[in-house]
Predict the structure.
Amino acid sequence: MVCRSHRPEQLVPSSKHSRTVEDKAASRLARQERRRARSREEILDAARKVLLRSGVAAMTLEAVASEAGISKTGLYYYFSSKDVLVFELVFSTLEGHAQAVQAAVANAETGGEALGAIVRETVHAFTAQMDDFRLAFMFGQVAGSAGIQWSAEQFARIRPLNAMIFSGAVALIEKGQAVGGKIEPRLLAFLAYLSAIGLLTMKGMVEAQGDPLVYSDENLINGFTKLFAAVDGS
């Protein structure tokens, strides 16, 4: 016999209650993810400071953990080795730069403008952050001697960043280029990128010796932009 004071339908949780439970669980997971992301970024920031201060050979997980204010065990939760930590540091710099170049190229209307955007964004992004430039583009010159090697899987993560940097410019060049253009579109995009890296390398070399370049950054950027626009025919 069913007690009249308890109606059967009251024993079944309402859909509103179920949604509330699910929403709370989703909110809790989102907070946990945000905390993990912040902790990861804090460790990468600490690693960058230690690396720039001490050099890659002297950089240890203990030093990074101390800089980040966590235990070495806590650091291992996010990064399993020094090689992995250093790779993620370099990768985050390259990824952020690739995204910025991609966004700049998206505002271009012609192939020539896109090539100029690659040069301009690359130079402007790293001029104020030359340590990041050295970390991203010159780290490989010292990594091997420090015993750091990237795996095939890590290289596979880096390669798509090239597509982010070049694909927008390539599409615009192909759209406006006459059939049988003299220079292959992706090569043009790569040359524009290479010119910006070369400019930054030279800038870092001479300014470190107190002998800055005769031409300003804008002079050089504008020169490259006009040169690539002429080659592209834009």
Remarks:
- The chain has two domains: 15-80, 91-234.
- The domain at 91-234 is CATH 1.10.357 (Tetracycline Repressor; domain 2).
- The chain has a mean pLDDT of 83.
